[in-house]
Amino acid sequence: YLDHLLEIRLPRMNYSQPETMNPPRRDILVMTPWFAPIVWDGTFNIDILNQQFKQRNVRIGLTVFAIKKYVVFIQLFLETAEKFFMVGHKVNYYIMTDRPKDVPNVTLAEGRKVVVLEIQSYARWQDVSMRRMEMISLFAKEQFIQEVDFLVCVDVDMRFSDHVGVEILSDIFGTLHPAFYRGQRQQFTYERRPASQAYIAYIEGDFYYAGGFFGGTVDEVYKLTNQCHNAIMTDKANSIEALWHDESHLNKYFLNHKPTKILSPEYLWDNSMGVPEVLRKRRFVAVPKNHVQIRN
Ligand code: 2GW
Ligand code: MN
């Protein structure tokens, strides 16, 4: 899909020139050593990107799980997504839930729709979280591949609060976890027991990626979620469960399959971390939850 972007002939546009000797940001890393862009505010021109993706008529699927009481998060999630997520593009919201009747009716802009997918629930919350990998891989193969070009897979206990657009799209992308983007690899909360499929040694690791925001082309997301699900099942057979569940397996996958783009913590912030100067925008923010009430 992305290879074809270069074949697009853009209309004449007025925009400020990129300056070889004057980078727009000097305070953060904007490119990994394997040449994947790290997306921070100020580093991209959204008008150029929108022209490219608009001409390809890009279709984006946003997958979100709302099992049991987590259906309460859907309304704010969808309302804020309509304001900030891929505005002007085709979007399918894939809402996976065991309570389809509790999915609220939210008015959507043209070219956007909600698709409710009924799935089973699991007793343990760890399984609710981890089984997302299985469900995404199954639906990717059976349904998403026919309906969208890219998948964006996120937590539901979140709200959009600033622009999230086509600048995030790439073959396979992950997001820097807000608690660890400044950290050393030894401090990352990777799974450290060699018996787990998610094991990462202390001398390994690039970044600590958040479980709550990843994506890519449907094919690449299928590969990622299928491989993570298989690793989770192998762990289960060996009576071991990775420290941070699906997030641990995601980090292992990205160690061996480097993401082609990385989103800065602007794309997954938690206000309990304060607001550091490096963060010019908070685009997608955790909704504070009463853990006792919502989880029991
Ligand atoms: C219930 C009790 C305790 C924890 C989760 C749940 C629960 C989660 C639930 O009852 N119903 C449900 O739909 N979920 C889904 O799992 C929902 O989509 C939610 O956003 C997601 C992850 O659970 P969450 O958001 O409560 O946990 P976080 O914010 O600490 O998630 C991080 O760590 C997880 C692994 O432990 C995942 O990697 C997640 O992607 C991370 O953001
Ligand atoms: Mn969450």
Describe the overall structure.
There is one protein chain. The mean pLDDT is 97. The chain is 27% helix and 16% strand. The longest helix is centred in the middle third of the chain and has 23 residues. The strands form two sheets. It has an eight-stranded mixed β-sheet with strand order 1-9-7-8-5-2-3-4, with helices on one face. Strands 6-10 form a two-stranded antiparallel sheet. The chain is of the alpha/beta class and 296 residues long. It contains six helices and ten strands, in the order βαβαββαββββααββα. α3 runs antiparallel to α4 and α4 packs across α5. 5-phenyl-uridine-5'-alpha-d-galactosyl-diphosphate binds next to β2, α3 and α5.
Second CATH tier, the architecture: Alpha-Beta Complex
SSE ordering: EHEHEEHEEEEHHEEH
User: Can you list the strand order of the major beta sheet?
Assistant: 1-9-7-8-5-2-3-4
Number of helices: 6
Number of domains: 1
What distance separates the N and C termini? 43 Å
Low-pLDDT stretches are: none
Q: Please report the total strand number as a whole number.
A: 10
Largest sheet: 8 strands, mixed
Q: What is the CA-atom radius of gyration, in angstroms?
A: 19 Å
> For this structure, what is the CATH homologous superfamily?
Spore Coat Polysaccharide Biosynthesis Protein SpsA, Chain A
Name the shape in a single word. globular
